[in-house]
Amino acid sequence: MSVKLFKGDCLELLKQIKDESIDMVLTDPPYGIAFQSGYRKIGYEKIKGDQNLYWLDDFVEEIFRVSKNNTAHYMFCSFHHIDIFKQAIQKRFKVKNIITWVKNNTSMGDLKGDFAPKTEFIIFFQKGRRLINGRRDSNVFEFNKTRNELHPTQKPVDMTEYMLSKFSDEGNVILGPFMGSGTTGVACVNTNRNFIGMELDEDYFKIAKERINHESARSNQNTSKHHRQRSRVFQHGKG
Known about the structure:
This protein has helices at about 10-15, 55-65, 80-90, 155-165, 185-190, 200-239, and strands spanning about 5, 25, 70-75, 95-100, 120-125, 140, 175, 195-200. The protein is α/β, with parallel strands linked by helices. It has one domain: Vaccinia Virus protein VP39 (Rossmann fold), CATH 3.40.50.
């Protein structure tokens, strides 16, 4: 398993990726809504590049180029511009579904003039046709929301691992543009996938790097421990 992390603008970094070399793109890009977290304990600044979606068509073109044939991909988005995301993606890919992620609690917003938001959306799309692993599950995901301790839009590791498991295999190459705090990288380490991550923000890049390195070290320790235990069993058996 390999992990490669790149700091910089993914629109430029993607140009360095070979044609048809990626098994899955799993990305959580800016939603184009100038989002700023209302989580008062941390006080996050606005997400960089979240003012508009001028980059979206070029981004879709690049991820189409680098994706292998017969592969499946995920892109998070919010309800605000889901139509724009869908239209951009389906210019090159086949949009198969829009997944609804139901969280365990509600988000902020207009506390007195709106329903409390409890969902987020994931556009599921394919280049060619990639068959599902295992059973065919519902397009409604129920996973607990994170506390956003590392990033204002941090996603849960267990949900990301599940997404990987349904449409990729061990040893596949997973691309994570807009890497954020590195959740997809951690999920790849935990599920034995190769990961290529890209992040523009220096602070989040450092967080992702440290987090993924820590998870890789922990995984290697567990593997070594398992091998030592197996060795003891074999030695005992020979005695």
